[in-house]
Design brief:
Blueprint: E1 2-3, E2 7-9, H1 12-16, E3 33-37, H2 44-57, E4 61-64, H3 68-77, E5 90-93, H4 104-114, E6 120-122, E7 137-139, H5 143-150, H6 159-164, H7 166-177, E8 180-183, E9 188-191, E10 197-200, H8 212-226, H9 228-258, H10 265-270, H11 272-281
Parallel strand pairs: 2-10, 3-4, 3-5, 5-6, 6-7, 7-8
Antiparallel strand pairs: 1-2, 8-9, 9-10
Helix pairs in contact: 2-3, 2-8, 8-9, 9-11
Length: 282
């Protein structure tokens, strides 16, 4: 990392250390099993994109246990996904969901996941559940979403204020909720309680398009699953490092997909393996 003591820049050298390269002794379980509860009737594509990105980041298995109506779309794109409940090592929850339209059944399933004490990514429609998470947790808001969850606790936590000083507000949210915060933007800021804020700059402007946040959440979910053992032992340092690495890979995959031109979220997900390979071989 480079930069001042308070504001650090996440580099390729930093990110490379957090890619779990499988060995001859690994199997699908030792490589990590990611549980996914994402998508909705209104936004089924969010589940497809997150699962696609997680699969391409390098994880042994994905269990999708979100809405049944969405599962068909997930399986059509990724037939290797398992849709039966079972053991997982990390969770990805909330992408493409609306907290105000959460059904009783879905809410119960999410609560069951959150009380397991496993590493979790809370995105979009699960951000309001941050207080219920019992394991190492990363929340992934953009500025407007962070304003929404901070405003009831902090006078002045407006969209404009957060956009003007994103790093400080990410750090404040991390301390307030006791979780790692990945605040999305052209420069992404990652903050953990009591730790320096890390910046991941230089994401291409073309990345500002629908669905790319779902891709980022999938990348991060996969990284948590592949590092579940490490997170169980030392999540204080590992969690923000994995969040910053996910953002780094996301930006590099977007650069590869773009080549200087427009991209879609699925374009970014499809370039994640190339971004991982480039990082490892640099």
């Amino acid at each position: 990392m480079t930069g001042s003591a308070e504001r650090l820049i996440w580099t390729a050298d930093d990110a490379r250390e957090w890619i779990a390269v499988p060995t001859a002794s690994d199997d699908k379980y030792s490589r990590g099993v990611l549980g996914v509860i994402t998508g909705s009737h209104d936004y089924p594509g969010a589940a497809v994109l997150g699962v696609e990105a997680a699969a391409r980041t390098g994880v042994g298995m994905i269990r999708y246990t979100g809405p049944k109506a969405v599962a068909a779309a997930v399986l059509a794109r990724r037939p290797e996904v398992v849709t039966q409940r079972g053991r997982v090592q990390a969770w990805l929850i909330g992408s493409g969901m609306n907290s105000g339209r959460r059904t009783f059944v879905l809410g119960g399933e999410i609560q069951q996941a959150l009380v397991q004490g496993l590493p979790a990514v809370l995105d979009a429609g699960a951000l309001d559940l941050v207080a219920d998470a019992t394991g190492p947790t990363v929340i992934t808001p953009h500025a407007r979403e962070l304003a929404g969850i901070l405003a009831p606790r902090h006078i002045g936590a407006s969209l404009e204020a957060i956009q003007a000083d994103a790093a400080s507000w990410a750090a404040r949210a991390a301390d307030e909720f006791g979780v790692t915060v990945l605040l999305k933007g052209a420069t992404t800021h990652v903050a953990a309680p009591g730790s320096p804020t890390v910046a991941v700059p230089d994401a291409p402007g073309w990345l500002a398009t629908a669905g790319t946040g779902d891709v980022l959440a999938g990348i991060l979910g996969a990284l948590l699953a592949t590092h579940a053992v490490r997170l169980a032992d030392d999540h204080g340092d590992a969690l923000p490092a994995l969040a910053a690495t996910a953002s780094f890979l996301h930006a590099r995959a977007a650069e590869l997909a773009s080549g200087g031109g427009p991209i879609t979220a699925l374009d970014v997900a499809e370039k994640v393996p190339v971004a991982v390979a480039a990082l490892l071989n640099d």
